[in-house]
Amino acid sequence: xxxxxxxxxxxxxxxxELPPGxxxxxxxxxxxxxxxxxEMKTQWEHPKTGKKKRCAGDLPYGWEQEIDEEGQIxxxxxxxxxxxxxxxxxxxxxxxxxxxxxxxxxxTAALDILQGRDLSDKVVLITGGxxxxxxxxxxxxxxxxxHVIMACRNLSRANKAVGxxxxxxxxxxxxxxxxxxxSLRSVREFADSFKSRNLPLHxxxxxxxxxxQPWSLTEDGLESTFQICHLGxxxxxxxxxxxxxxxxxxxxxxxxxxxxxxxxxxxSAKQHYWSMLAYNRAKLCNILFSNELHxxxxxxxxxxNAVHPGNMMYTSxxxxxxxxxxxxxxxxxxxxxxxxxxxxxxxxxxxxELEGLGGMYFNNCFxxxxxxxxxxxxxxxxxxxxxxxxxxxxxx
Length: 396
Hints:
It is found in: Cytoplasm; Golgi apparatus; Lysosome; Mitochondrion. By secondary structure, the protein is of the alpha/beta class.
């Protein structure tokens, strides 16, 4: 039977070019073998180089192994509706089969990190996923097969974001659910609704935030920035930690900011309130929370890392302060794309080299040291205790 053709996939360099009448195929577990059609025989070694090869990694999203009518393995690209005997993964010689982690930086986009990944077995929950880097995180994961749930306070905007992703890829499994972090009642109702569906939860991204808000109290009597950025997420994780543990290995990614370095945990009185200081303090809480969460849940297969999405990036969280909006508009030519802003979140959520690792802080896909107070274990334990106390007082 004539070999199936797939445009662009049979190009080889001079060293690996096969003699006439030879064909490269692979077994189900990725080992490459060579078929000599003239002599009707197969062998493991390349007929020119004498080396053995193996395909490494997962099949790209949309690809599937199947068996043809003659019992041969073929690879079907369901997205482009094409088939080939050639394994779409890159083949490595046996001595090179151990894949080194790729290096990423501030110019890396989230979709670059996910290239070739099939996430169809993952369920992901993202707070505030309807705009900004949260949307790009949700979009990137959904376009690679993950079942993505956006937990948002504005369902109208969230459903528009869902529609935008599904318009890009009609099979994307993405949906929106109501969750207002400014309401502890809403967070509990969301958690109950999520748990009633009996879904696993492999990745939880604590992304939602507000910045430059004027002084205000939530319905629970707490300062808004603190509750939305920290305490609402703390309660959400508390409510879902049993699901995370059952889904292990699972990961939590907490979106913080480099601005955590310019504050401490001392609470300011209302007359001394400054919105940026409140935001910085909430971002410090994010790192302390992530570290303590990892310490408590890592024995159960749940890890947590905090991330800084990147500098000079405009998102809707700055909309409450006209000066910040003006400055971002003025310097818009220097702003980083939000796809790059989502990269560090995606990296911490899925990088194979971070399996089982946590309690760290990442910037531009690199681990870096946060401030001294963000590393302080006693501060993390005290914040955890305070957060539990605040929730207990408001549930009574």
